[in-house]
Amino acid sequence: MQVTGYISSAVLEKTTKTTSKKFYAFRLAENFGSGAKRTTTWYDVLAHISEEEAKDIQSSDLVEITGKIETMPYLNKDNQPAASLRLIAFSVKKCPKE
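Request: output the structure for the sequence above.
Response:
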């Protein structure tokens, strides 16, 4: 799946607990529509990319991501079932500025 959106957090280096492999984590906002009809879908991104690729991206960059989506169920603050979207990224490409 491909998703295009804006990085909305710091790009943080993380390490897997089981294999000690590096990956990068950040939030991504994908916007649809405009004005009053604008909606945003939020993703928690886990990017399996090189250190060089990670250094090239930062908060507020427009990026195109290729990967797979997982739903992560949880209980919200009212103890009601909810879900967040996790995007496991295999490719993160910075989009050119317009």
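The chain has a mean pLDDT of 94.
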